[in-house]
Amino acid sequence: MTREMFHRDLAQLQDDVLVLGSMAEKAVLDAMESLRDGDVQWSQKIIEADHQVNAKRYEIEERCIFVIGSQQPMASDLRALVSMLFITQELERIADHAEGVARINTLMEPESLPRRLGYIPSMADRAVQMLRDALRAYLEHDAALARRVCDADDEVDRLYDSVHAETIKAMIADPGTIQRNTYLSWTSHNLERIADRCTNIAERVIYLVTGELVEINVSKY
Q1: Contact indicator for 13, 63 with CB cutoff of 8 Å
Q2: Which of 6, 7, 8, 32 is 20 to 30 Å apart from 15, CA to CA?
């Protein structure tokens, strides 16, 4: 009976990790839409909702620690719980970066809508897809998919380089755009970090499945 309870707890915790992942994904998508539409009120709601993500993370962590202490799991079961602790931290940080994008929107001056954001929407699309794939790899214990998530980070890095080059070029051409392009550069940095967090999640999935701790992609930034 104790073993059955343990696996029931483990399944519920995994479901909660996926819920947290959905919350993080929604925060990223909403932050990008509010930026594109210049919707400051929406951004403010994203900022205020971040405490819900934090609360969910701490709820999962507390339950993981309780299960570890009370059940004393061994081998693969312990790896599953330890991986949850790391993955929940990364998901909460992804939501923090989404909050960062929302805060940037509150700083930007009004302009023609929808905003022209260059490579930034493509960065966001790829980062969100990495998050979805990382969570699917976690759910399905798919190490091969997790490795593809890590590989996908290279494209986000290339887009980040492109945003950096374009913003610098625009600043030189028109110093009056320095503030706007600085904010766009900050936005791209948040998205690049989201992709890195997805890579970290994928690495934890590989650890969960294989027992091997690996660092597949090392960020340049």
Answers
A1: yes
A2: 32
Tokens 């951004």 sit on residue: 43
Compute CA distances 172 → 166, 168, 169, whole Å. Answer: 10, 6, 5
- CA separation for the pair 216, 100 (Å, rounded): 26
Q: How far apart are CA 200 and CA 5, in angstroms?
A: 30
Residue type, 212: E
- Report the predicted TM-score, pTM, of the whole model to 2 decimal places: 0.93
Query: 3-state DSSP call for residue 219?
Result: coil
Domain ranges of the chain: 2-210
Contact predicate 113/37, CB 8 Å: yes
Burial class (CB in 10 A: 0-12, 13-18, 19+), 174: exposed
Length, in residues, of the chain: 221
Q: What is the CATH number of domain 2-210?
A: 1.20.58.220
User: Six-digit token pair at 108?
Assistant: 């930007």
